[in-house]
Amino acid sequence: MKIKKILNNSVILSLDSNDKEIIVMGRGIAYAKKVGDDVDPEQITKKFILSSMEYPQRILDLFSDVPLECIELTNSIIQHAKQKISIELHDSLYISILDHIRASIERYKEGITLNNKLLWEIKNFYKDEFEIGLYALQLIEETYNIKMQEDEAGFIALHIVSSETNDDIHQTYEVTNFIQNITNIVKYYFNIEYDSQSLGYYRFITHLKFFATRLFSQSEGDNRPLESDLLDMIKEKYVRPYLCSLKIKKYIEEKYQHSLDNDEILYLCIHIAKITERKD
């Protein structure tokens, strides 16, 4: 493997065995090197196939512009995320986190702070990812002596969620807004405050995450009719949770033009019953 272009002392552009351009990283990998020199494979810590990523020129510009300590900081965050989360993370996460941290540091130096309007939802819906965001803020403070608000941890958490679901960041915002709206319907229907530490709440949020992913990917349910005796049992045993489920059904149909199948209504009803059974 030979150096095609030096982006900085720790990042180069090279070619793989199929002559595809790849970004190769490693501390000091390009130090005292020039174009055409061999790459020491033992120094390589990360590779990116450039053609598999969107906006390749932007990525090249990013690595050329970002200081080494920011690249290493991002790598530490990604390694921590891999230990914290069992789901495989997409390579694009490295780029999005690196770009976000660089931009947030620039904003901080200019005295600009962004409020994260979904911070409460992120803290409660994506607890592991938010913890990783807090870890990132800790590293930023240690590296740059900059103390950022928790809002930034929330933004970083959403980038991680996007990587987990292989969605773009805009769809992740949509999913989070969807969960917020559904939980608000239940909250105000029953006039309750959630116990965000309870198992029932965790299961309800997990169910909504998967449902939202299906909704925004346009995956339809099978629309099978419920057995009449099961439907009667649900109506009789969980009257208010069932009526609340119908309210959610109407909201989704009007907002997203998506018709809930009967199985989905059943699951919603059961989850709602579990988180409201002591308050109903």
Automatic annotation (TrEMBL):
Keywords: Repeat. Residues 65-170, 171-280 form the PRD domain. The keyword Coiled coil does not apply. GO terms for biological process: regulation of DNA-templated transcription. One of its GO terms (molecular function) is RNA binding. Gene3D superfamilies: CAT RNA-binding domain, PRD domain. Pfam families: CAT_RBD, PRD. This is Transcription antiterminator LicT.
